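Predict fold of NAD(P)-dependent dehydrogenase (Short-subunit alcohol dehydrogenase family); 287 aa.
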Amino acid sequence: MPLAHFDGALAVITGAGSGIGRATALALAENGATVVAADPDLASAERTVVLAEALGAKGAAYRVDVADGAAMEAFAAEVRNAHRTPDIVVNNAEIVMVGPFLRHSAEDWERVIGVNLWGVIHGSRLFGGQMRARVAALPAKPEKPNFGGHIVNVASASAFAPSSARPAYCTTKAAVLMLSECLRAELASSRIGVTAVCPGLVTTGIARHAVPPGADEARARFVARAERLLRLRSHPPERVADQIVRAIIKNRPVVTVNAEGKALRAVSRTAPPLLRLLARHSPAPQP
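Predicted 3D structure, encoded as tokens:
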């Protein structure tokens, strides 16, 4: 069942130091939630909390590497002890890795799977477990019978489409989408909603942190091209945050954001051979 409002809700957001994570933290804060902003860059997370407090919300910042299972265990325990079990969890932290499959090392794969998939697994398992335990402890007729909590996992439109230029990224995002569908089925009986959000191109600074193979010159060319494309697309992260807020309220299972996200999902259902053809011509950075 949906969480219909956010007054007094506690929201945990990973990757909250910038981009979609920060925009989502502020959107939830503006709607009355207390935000726990987690990011590997503590100063960025603290800046998000300052902005949330300017909106009249309360908040706390934490430095967390979502790929580190022990760190996430400690973080989840700290949130519960210092605050309480969260009502909303947004697993947003991600990294982008581009380049052909055969140019990625085992360490490259471990890095992108660690953040993009294990980060979602850790956040969903630890906080989902807290939410379920809270529901189990409620009386037979609780005051809020429709409330259990909500987990949002930020995937990508890349979850619907193969790409010869982004095999690691597409693989992890497809896994996040399927994990979210599985969790939704499992947690429904505990009145915990789960949503997978699949944005297309969004104007954030993530291109600057992408990991293409090759020399520094090739990396610089890739970043310049990617940032130019994102500027031309001009879809700010605040629009994604608005979709996330609506998805929580309506308890939607999958949300595709912007035109390319909706188009890729539709084509994946109706014309998958076309996506396979396009995947062969995905532009990849070359050293």
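The longest helix spans residues 106-136.
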